[in-house]
Amino acid sequence: MAEFVHPDRHHVAVLVRHGMLVMELGIVHRLFGQARSASGEPLYEVVTCALEPGPVRTDSDFTIPIDRGPEMLAEADTVIVPASLAEYEPMARVLTPPLAAALDRLRADARIASICTGAFVLAAAGLLDGRRATTHWRSADELQNRFPEVEVDPCVLYTDDGNVLTSAGVASGIDLVLHMIRRDHGAAVANEVARGTVVSPHREGGQAQFVRRPVPEPRTSSTKAARAWALENLHRPLTLRELAAREAMSTRTFTRRFREEVGVSALQWLTQQRIERVRQLLEESDLPVDRVAAEAGFGTAASLRQHFQAALGVSPSAYRSTFRGELAAQAG
C-alpha cells in the first residue's frame, strides 16, 4: 500500500483528475518542495494521487502516470484539489461516486485547498457551505448559482477560512501555496521559497484578480526603481511626490503609471508592504509594538494597530501570540 515515507514532514496530497492543468500540479510540487528549515531540511512531503492509479490526461498533449490512488488522502495533512478542464467539474450539485468516496477518506483535521475551478469540488462536497470562497472570475457566477450556500467572492486571489482555502486562476495558486507555507512556518521560509521561484513573496488574498483596463502601451520608463527604493525606506514617511521624483515623473503621471503596473494605487501598495514588514517583525523579533510601528513606517503604535486590524482582522499582539504559539507547537 502506498504511503508517505517521511513521518517528520507535513504531508501534502494533490488529487488530480483527467484534464488536470499541468501548471497547477507543478506549482504545488515546486513551492512546497523548496520549503526548508533553518538547518536545510525539507518541511513538506508532496505526493500526487488520482481517483484510481494509472495514466491521467492533462490539458496538454500528454498524459502523466499516477501511481497512487485515493488512499493517500487518509494520510495527508493538507489536500490540494486543482482544476480539471476535461471534466470541467461535475455539472450536478453532487459529487460523482468515485470523487465522493475519495473525499470521504479525508481526516477530520486535514486542511483542504482548491486551485481555480477545483473550488467546485469543495462546494459539491459541502466543504464551502457558509464560507467565503473564490474561483476563477469567469466561473464565479456559475459557482454562486450552483451553490447558493457558498459566499462567492470573485474579486480576490484566495480565501482562508481556517482549514478550508480556495484560490482563483492558475497563478493565484502560487499566492495560495506561499500563504500556506507562511502560515505554517513564517515569513522567512515563505520569502525564501518565493525568491527561489522568482515570484513576489506576498500578495494579499484580498488583492483583485484582474484590473479592468487595457494593457498599457510599452514605455521605456516604469515605477520599478521607485518601488525598490521605497522598500528600503519603509521606515520613512514617504510621499507620492517623493516617489514620483525618483522616476523623474509628475505626481499625476506616476500615480497613473503605478496603478497600470501594480494594479493598486501607490499608497495602497505602501500600506500593503508596511503590513508585510510588520508581520515579519512580529514573527521574527521581540521588538515592542511601538518599535515595530517605527520600523515599518506607521509612526505610532496606534496607527499600526488601526491599519493592522483593518488588514488582518486581529491586533498585532494577538497575531504575534498566535503565530509564536503555532511555531512552538510545531517545534514541540
UniProtKB/TrEMBL annotation:
Q: Which residues form the HTH araC/xylS-type domain?
A: 224-322
Give the keywords, sorted.
Answer: DNA-binding, Transcription, Transcription regulation
Highest taxon of the source? Bacteria
Q: Name one GO molecular function term.
A: sequence-specific DNA binding
Tagged with keyword Nucleus: no
One short Pfam family name for this protein?
HTH_18
Q: Which PROSITE patterns match?
A: HTH_ARAC_FAMILY_1, HTH_ARAC_FAMILY_2
**Name of the featured protein:** Transcriptional regulator GlxA family, contains an amidase domain and an AraC-type DNA-binding HTH domain
Question: Taxonomic classification, please?
Answer: Bacteria, Bacillati, Actinomycetota, Actinomycetes, Pseudonocardiales
